[in-house]
Design brief:
5% strand; two-stranded antiparallel ribbon; Arc Repressor Mutant, subunit A; 49% helix; single chain
Length: 149
């Protein structure tokens, strides 16, 4: 699994919005400035996350973006898979793959790749944005939490 800039920025957007949830909408300029994301790229990311059902938006002077659900209900894994796709290191192991390998049952590597993918899934699906928000805010205030998986 490799996280692209698009994936990294998408995670930062969700984290930024988690910090304001549900109190207020956040304007695109604020997100861009705070998370150091180029505006044009951010526009694409916001649109994509909105299409995925993670964000809601409101137009106008008092408009902006907010999470569509509580940060506690959104996992790191959901965002990673939505943006980057499968976390399995090879497509033939992924159950959602359009063309599973014909030799999968005889493949000596299959159990290894499956275990790697399952381990990644177990970790990233166990982390929600409420926890990440709390750690982020502690770090911003000078505390360094000992994040436990």
């Amino acid at each position: 699994m490799k996280i692209t800039y698009k994936g990294d920025y998408s995670l930062k957007v969700v984290l930024e919005l988690a910090c304001s949830y549900p109190e207020r909408l956040v304007h695109i300029e604020e997100i861009s400035r705070k998370q150091d994301i180029p505006r044009k790229f951010l526009e694409q990311i916001l649109l994509n996350l909105k299409r995925g059902g993670f964000l809601v938006s409101k137009k106008g002077a008092k408009g902006g973006y907010s999470l569509a659900r509580s940060p506690r209900e959104i996992t790191l894994g959901e965002i990673v898979r939505f943006i980057e796709g499968s976390v399995y290191p090879i497509s033939c192991i992924d159950c959602d793959s359009p063309s599973p390998c014909k030799e999968l049952s005889d493949c000596v590597f299959a159990p290894v790749w499956r275990e790697i993918g399952d381990s990644i899934t177990g970790i990233i699906d166990g982390i929600n944005f409420e926890t990440l928000k709390e750690d982020y805010l502690l770090k911003k205030n000078g505390y360094i939490p000992d994040f436990q998986i």
